[in-house]
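Proteins fold reproducibly. Consider a sample protein:
=====
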Amino acid sequence: MTALHTSDFFLKLDSCKGKIFDFDGTIADSMNVWYWVDMQFLARRNLTPPEDYGRKLSMLGFDRAAAFVIDCFSLDDSPEDIMDEWNELALDHYSSGVFFKPHAREYIEALRERDNKISVATTLSPPLLQAALENNKALDLFDALVCGCEVERDKREPDIYLLAAKRMGLVPQQCVVFEDILPGIQSAKRGGMLAVGVRDDSGHQEIEALKETADCFIDSFKDLLFRS
């Protein structure tokens, strides 16, 4: 774990009663699903992804990602058609094969025991998020669920985190965002929130930039669980 002024960070972490978690790559080990979905989608059309394709998609909400793909490859499909195809490809995985990362559930449960408010802020579509939470028996863990389709801008702006804070009945300064992508960390901080970077082993992360930008960077929720 890395953090600037670690003791000060933990004081701030404990004082923030709202905890906002990204889903894919942060609390769920699921980024491999999207690599598979992308490859299946592109293979059906004999398309080759440009450099940085996956990273750019990861920060967009479902509808914006579909628009990006249409523009990127000059496709005739509608955004709705593409989103339906992605949902169809991914649903079985989210219904049965996507699970929480080690210690993520334990950490969230520990936070709940201390009367924290907990939310998810994800670019996933609502059906996929619902399927994954049901499969993990985790619907009762969260006070609010926010998907990217509910806000105007993607995670390069703090809209999704601000809506999560609002649904928990909190102001931004009372909240901490847990994210695996750099744009999410940057926008959460611009929105007035504390930001924790979470390592993901899928290979899409800008690790050094995350460590420099986040208030704290963790390799596992175990880092926080046994210090909380």
